[in-house]
Design goal:
Blueprint: E1 3-9, H1 16-24, E2 31-37, E3 51-54, E4 77-80, E5 84-86, H2 90-101, E6 105-108, E7 111-114, E8 124-127, E9 137-138, E10 143-145, H3 148-152, H4 167-177, E11 181-184, E12 189-191, H5 203-215
Parallel strand pairs: 1-2, 1-4, 2-3, 6-11
Antiparallel strand pairs: 4-10, 5-12, 6-10, 7-8, 7-9
């Protein structure tokens, strides 16, 4: 069974060819590359190296990318943001980590914890945890997880507002609430800082998702 790679393109259409070329150079080749076009425009590219999906509805948030998972057959699933460059062993490394930790884990390099009772989603306790440490949150860019999470929690493939705006917290919280461990692994990608990050402009919406997840029973490690 092939690994599924999901890359969502929103504000960085010009990076698409570069992203595809990076995956073309991977040491591990047995994967499907899926490009989710979350813009309102045609990407202007035809390629046999990736499967293209176009969001024909309103862009509701980053969580839109997970809508394509029911159409994918492979396992595990690796997610990458369009503002990240990757090493040539990116896919190989993430598959090995998935095989090591198992299907009931959500793995990623961007990891953080919260203090017990924290009420502000921005006030993390620790960030970029050491390898192998359990986390409260795993970032979606550079994340690997078994498709069983999405099969067991179908809400994740059809997120509603405000969860869809803060897909990182939503996936992390619902994963824990459904018995998955969140584990920090090494980084095989580098963020490209270009000033197009939207998270700072969505503070209210992201906080709303945080509050709702807490009301639904999401507990931090420090509270277990």
């Amino acid at each position: 069974m092939k690994t599924e790679i999901i890359v969502a393109i929103y504000q960085r259409r010009k990076r698409l060819e570069h992203i595809i070329n990076q995956f073309d150079k991977q040491t591990y080749k047995d994967f499907n590359l899926n490009i989710y076009n979350n813009t309102e425009k045609d990407l202007g590219i035809n390629t046999s190296k990736a499967r293209l999906f176009h969001n024909k509805e309103k862009n509701n948030g980053a969580g839109d990318r997970f809508k394509i998972i029911p159409f994918l057959k492979g396992n595990p699933i690796i997610v990458l943001d369009d503002d990240e460059d990757i090493t040539e062993d990116f896919v190989e490394y993430h598959i090995k980590e998935y095989e090591k930790w198992g299907d009931k884990c959500l793995l990623g390099w961007y990891s953080k914890t919260y203090k017990a009772g924290e009420t502000d989603q921005r006030n993390e306790d620790k960030i970029y945890l050491p390898y192998g440490k359990e986390a409260d949150v795993i970032g979606c860019g550079g994340m690997v997880v078994g498709r069983s999470l999405f099969d067991n929690v179908p809400e994740l493939t059809d997120m509603k507002y405000p969860y869809i705006v803060n897909d990182m917290l939503t996936i992390s919280a619902l994963a824990r609430m459904n018995g998955y461990k969140l584990i920090s692994i090494g980084s095989k990608c580098e963020i490209i800082y270009d000033g197009k990050d939207t998270t700072k402009r969505q503070i209210k919406e992201r906080q709303e998702a945080f509050d709702l997840l807490r009301k639904r029973g999401w507990k931090f490690l420090s509270e277990l």
